[in-house]
């Protein structure tokens, strides 16, 4: 399993409108070691959970401290980290940049397979594994939200990363496609860190983090974490 270490990491952003013009801390400092196969993250909008996820593959660099994935520093060893960590955004159209799914999967495999024929064969295998062969040559804009999300996952998983990080992957999905996504995630051999507002999905984990106001305020059993989060946000 993958080991992620977040050591004293914090993230600050400029605050030009403030009278003292000092940066504002939006996350941390945090100290975490993640080794579990499935970790979920819950928190309100603006709590810092998306920033935490972006630390894990170097999309955001820590202002203080450092983050490592299997010993690789996300800043110093950025390229190597991104080969080990796949990141899936909330909106799959953020990942699907070419007209069809087949082209997107082939693009993701370009570094792994230099030969075009080998790349096309590998892309076909990936699409078949996710049950997407019949949709591979359709415009991504003609696909349903669930089909796009599965296709985006196929794209980022094509290169067989060690860790998959997902930022609210079920937000745009209906119940049926959320359950389909859950089945796909449960079958993956990769370690998964997933942020979600879907508390049923959050429970399908070995460990759950609750993020509030830039801090991890609960870390542990998923059911206890969801109960803690409900206590933070539910009205009396």
Automatic annotation (TrEMBL):
<dbReference type="GO" id="GO:0005524">
    <property type="term" value="F:ATP binding"/>
</dbReference>
<dbReference type="InterPro" id="IPR050095">
    <property type="entry name" value="ECF_ABC_transporter_ATP-bd"/>
</dbReference>
<dbReference type="InterPro" id="IPR003439">
    <property type="entry name" value="ABC_transporter-like_ATP-bd"/>
</dbReference>
<keyword id="KW-0067">ATP-binding</keyword>
<feature type="domain" description="ABC transporter">
    <location>
        <begin position="4"/>
        <end position="235"/>
    </location>
</feature>
<dbReference type="InterPro" id="IPR003593">
    <property type="entry name" value="AAA+_ATPase"/>
</dbReference>
<comment type="similarity">
    <text>Belongs to the ABC transporter superfamily.</text>
</comment>
<dbReference type="InterPro" id="IPR015856">
    <property type="entry name" value="ABC_transpr_CbiO/EcfA_su"/>
</dbReference>
<dbReference type="InterPro" id="IPR027417">
    <property type="entry name" value="P-loop_NTPase"/>
</dbReference>
<keyword id="KW-0547">Nucleotide-binding</keyword>
<keyword id="KW-0813">Transport</keyword>
<dbReference type="Pfam" id="PF00005">
    <property type="entry name" value="ABC_tran"/>
</dbReference>
<protein>
    <submittedName>
        <fullName>ABC transporter ATP-binding protein</fullName>
    </submittedName>
</protein>
<dbReference type="InterPro" id="IPR017871">
    <property type="entry name" value="ABC_transporter-like_CS"/>
</dbReference>
């Amino acid at each position: 399993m993958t080991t992620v270490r977040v050591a004293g990491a914090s993230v600050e952003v400029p605050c030009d409108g403030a009278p003292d013009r000092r940066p504002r801390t939006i996350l941390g400092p945090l100290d975490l070691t993640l080794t579990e196969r499935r970790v979920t993250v819950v928190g309100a909008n603006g709590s810092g959970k998306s920033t935490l996820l972006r630390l894990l593959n170097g999309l955001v660099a820590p202002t203080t401290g450092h983050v490592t994935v299997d010993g690789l520093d996300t800043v110093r060893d950025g390229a190597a980290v991104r080969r080990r960590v796949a990141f899936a955004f909330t909106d799959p159209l953020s990942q699907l940049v070419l007209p069809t799914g087949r082209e997107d999967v082939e693009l993701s495999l370009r570094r792994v397979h230099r030969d075009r024929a080998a790349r096309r064969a590998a892309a076909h295998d990936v699409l078949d594994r996710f049950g997407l062969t019949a949709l591979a040559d359709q415009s991504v804009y003609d696909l349903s939200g669930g089909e796009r999300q599965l296709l985006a996952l196929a794209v980022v998983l094509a290169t067989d990363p060690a860790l998959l990080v997902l930022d609210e992957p079920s937000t745009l999905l209906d119940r049926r496609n959320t359950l389909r996504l859950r089945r796909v995630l449960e079958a993956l051999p990769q370690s998964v860190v997933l942020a979600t507002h879907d508390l049923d999905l959050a429970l399908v984990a070995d460990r759950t983090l609750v993020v509030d106001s830039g801090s991890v305020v609960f870390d542990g059993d998923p059911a206890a974490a969801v109960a803690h989060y409900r206590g933070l946000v539910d009205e009396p």
